[in-house]
Design a protein that fits this description.
about 15% strand, two-stranded antiparallel sheet
Length: about 260
């Protein structure tokens, strides 16, 4: 695991400064344990290249990211850029956080909400989490309809349900940028709850998607696995990600040079 670095890795997207929390996974989980135990709300985002692409053109997404108090590196390119900048961070995929967070919530008796995906997938994911984290209380499973707007009155009603159920941890699987916008609004309206954006994390657990095998992930080729599994949806996304890499690499190199001075 990459050691923590005293100076955070920073990505600048127009007027927004995004600092990756300089923690390894063990330190992150210790921090989340303390927050959940105190019912100190938080919003955790998992930064990857696709997010950096969207952040360039989506002001609402940038505003939502600015309200997150924890950001981790979800993709190997973000980790590589941090190393180029001389500010290395650990790879902490959102999907890898789901089961450890469920175990932590069960231990601390913190009620959990699962939001996103489909109803049948949420049911399967909930069953899996209860089996791996005995005592886990999943107080709410909600699969929003197609076209769900995270800034709508419907989203506000959902957040009222989260607050009314006393939920302390919300695992949000709506995809970017909806999940981050929802998490930012949630933190403002339910300040004692932790909102964690996990992308396809619940789909993996619920069987709707198959995650790349461990060796493929270890070789940093999960993106190839995912693109081949759904080329129509993902080929253009990964092309856009590749196109921003040169500019991000130059920015990281300038940051490294600034470190020396």
């Amino acid at each position: 695991m990459t050691p923590a670095h005293p100076t955070p890795m920073v990505f600048r997207q127009r007027e927004t400064r995004i600092a990756i929390t300089p923690l390894d996974e063990a330190a992150l989980m210790a921090d989340l344990r303390a927050r959940l135990g105190l019912r100190a709300g938080f919003a955790l985002a998992t930064l990857n290249l696709d997010h950096l692409v969207k952040l360039r053109s989506d002001a609402g997404f940038r505003a939502a990211y600015a309200q997150h108090d924890i950001v981790v590196a979800d993709g190997n390119p973000v980790v590589w850029l941090s190393r180029l900048a001389g500010r290395p961070v650990a790879l902490i995929p959102g999907a890898d956080l789901v089961e450890p967070l469920a175990a932590l919530a069960a231990e601390l008796r913190v009620p959990v909400a699962l939001i996103g995906s489909r109803a049948d997938v949420l049911d399967a994911a909930a069953e899996r989490l209860r089996a791996t984290a005995p005592g886990l209380r999943i107080a709410l499973c909600h699969a929003p309809p197609m076209g769900f707007d995270p800034a709508s009155p419907e989203a506000d009603r959902l957040l009222a349900r989260v607050a009314g159920a006393g939920i302390g941890l919300c695992l949000v699987a709506l995809g970017a940028p909806r999940q981050e916008v929802f998490a930012a609004r949630g933190l403002a309206r339910v300040p004692g709850c932790g909102f964690v954006s996990i992308g396809a994390g619940l789909d993996f657990l619920g069987g709707a998607q198959r995650r790349a095998p461990w060796l493929v992930r270890r070789l940093a080729l999960e993106w190839v696995w995912r693109m081949l599994s759904d080329p129509r949806r993902l080929a253009l996304r990964y092309l856009r990600c590749a196109l921003i890499l040169p500019a991000e690499a130059r920015a990281a190199w300038r940051l490294r040079h600034a470190n020396r001075h």
